[in-house]
Amino acid sequence: MRRTLCAIRLFNALFAHTRQKTRPTSDDGSMKRTARTQNRLIQFLTSLPFHKSRRMRAAIYGELVVVIYALLIGAVLPQRYSFSVGQVSQSTIVAPTDAVDTYATQQARIAAAQQVSPRYDVNPAIEQSAVSILERLFVTTQTVLSDKSLTMAERLLTLKASAPPGVDGSVLTTLLQATPLEFNELSGDSIRIVQTVLGGPFSASDMKNAAMMIDQQLVTLDVNIKDRLAIAKLLLAVVKPNLVYDPVLTQQARLNAERNVPDVWINRGDVILRRGQLVTPATLSQMKDLKMLKNEPDYAMEAGYLLFVLLLVIAIGIFIQMRRGRIAKDNLHLLLYALLLTLLIVLIRVSKTAVNAGFAPSLVDAVPFAMGSMMISLFFGTSLALLSSLLVALLASSAYGFAFAPFFVALMGSLGATMATSRVQNRGVFMRAGFLAAGINFAAIGIMHLLIPSSTSIRGVSYDLLYGVVGGLLSGIFSIGLMPYLETIFRVTTHIGLLELANPNHPLLRRLLLEAPGTYHHSLIVGNLAESAAEAIGADALICRVGAYFHDVGKMRRPAFFIENQIGGDNPHDKVAASLSYLIVTSHVSDGLAMLNEYRLPEPVTAICAQHHGTTVLWYFYNKAVEEDKHAQPDIDQFRYPGPKPQSREAAIVMICDAVEAAVRSMQKPTPPRIEAMIRKIIKDRLQDGQLDQCDITLRDLDKMTAAFMRTLQGVYHERIEYPDPEKLLAQKNR
């Protein structure tokens, strides 16, 4: 990896002085040396195992996850502060998200628990004790009454020893003077009333009303006033509160009260601390709840965001591998894609840092998100650009608290720019895409202000709209500036680069015109044929046309040995052996590859040059070899092109077009039926020879190509009238 990055830096430095893809002139030695050095670097980069290594591909994805996480985690997490109670805040702090206010919730729960009255439980021992005292008194009374030897004073003294405290002598005298019937009623009623009063909860506050409660019970009894007063005094002496404080029930009740108190929330946007305000325990607790203190790491959010980024990158990686494009085959292209994403992430982080420093949050709308979509669309296709637009919009939203407005604006502008760059004709497409992105940003920001009302003033809304327009325009400007350098450093072929190569003023094409004019015109016709065939089957027509222009440049080394450049005179192949002719003719492929590498043409063009003959047989020279040596049959495989066979539909199209143009040009009377028969024969021969086995071209594609060839060739080789010779007409007239 380190060797690759060093080579890329050196390669970029060599291109710092010139961006023109022209051949170094013969009178400039320094430019020659620069070109040779660049070619060596290109060969070095393309030969590194870096390009195909699966480990390196996994490392790029892993590094992309790490870079995105490292750049944005600081923006996703709330800004951290170091405060203590009593300190004065130097800025106004607003809650970046929702959170439970622990301090306020705890205070509310404490207040609710304090409002819960103590809980008491009925103690049955109080009732049992009161009943036991009464029963003991009544038993003692009966015992005293049964002893006839005791005087009244002795009886009172004995009875007083068994009586409950507080019972005066009048009550005891009433018990001793009662008849047996009255005594039984008095004792039974007393015990029953005690059981009634103490059978349920009887608190200390109830004790104040004990006389009234007992009197209410006595009213219902058929007893005289004297006995009623005695019973009342006796019961008041034994009745006591039967409720005992229960700490367990009290605690349970208070816990239930605390649980019923809802959480107090800090809402996003609430002002936690104003500038110049003292830090209190409550505000410090709120900042702790919001994870805004430096000594309070939020491990859950950090882990969640890591998984969020990891999932997004995995989704992108799966999509790339399933599409099986050139980015899935060359790690250098994947590295370019990762760098483009990293550039956008850096811009998001810079905008968030500026917002934290005091700029308006709408500054994110000025980030040129559409720039990434434009370049990804041109480098790797529209589908990957669309998915990448969604990825970047999600990351932008995450940096701003996962808000919807940044996501919507970034996504809409990027999608518009992607659609604008789906068909490229010139570099002006960047400015058109930039203006389109600016317009979409303007509309998207306006929609967000209508859907999400805010206190923003008209001036603030105007600034927001201006930011969106600036973001779209910057996307076009940055794309124009960065595109040539990225094309050169990473050797990525775009339609813009191909359009530049198709210019007839390209130095190699001008050389071809001057040194091999027949081959030049042959290449132009092949280019027209290839472009029409590619459009018919949905292949890349521009690659076909440019590849056809350059596929035979190797013939410039020995132009006279190729029939299209032989204008009269002898055929030099008549003077050499068939084997030597074979070497001369087949060498135009390797010679062409050397020239294309010298002029730094992209890989799709060099691939077409290498594959446009596949492993076909040079039948003319094979038959000539058979005639030269009739005693030994030469091996037919020794007269095949070295290959490889076409690996893409574009290479297969150029192969067939090359053969069709040469065959039709050699026909004496190229009528439409004869041309069509010749085309179908050439295609049949290529199929039977297995030349189209390694490319994804179908029989239906070949049939469509035949119709496209007919339309183009009928315009080139149409029948012409024979114009009379003016001199002959003049001679006939003079006769």
Automatic annotation (TrEMBL):
Determine the domain of life of the protein's source: Bacteria
The answer to whether keyword Transmembrane applies is yes
The record's keywords, sorted A to Z, are: Membrane, Transmembrane, Transmembrane helix
* Cross-referenced CDD domains: HDc
Pfam families reported for this sequence: 7TM-7TMR_HD, 7TMR-HDED, HD
Keyword presence, Amino-acid biosynthesis: no
Transmembrane region positions?
58-77, 303-320, 332-350, 370-395, 402-421, 433-453, 465-486
Q: Which residues form the HD/PDEase domain?
A: 515-672
Classification via InterPro entries: HD/PDEase_dom, HD_domain, HDIG_dom, Metal-dep_PHydrolase_7TM_extra, Metal-dep_PHydrolase_7TM_intra, PgpH_phosphodiesterase
User: Which PANTHER family does this UniProt record tie to the protein?
Assistant: CYCLIC-DI-AMP PHOSPHODIESTERASE PGPH
Q: What is this protein called?
A: HD/PDEase domain-containing protein
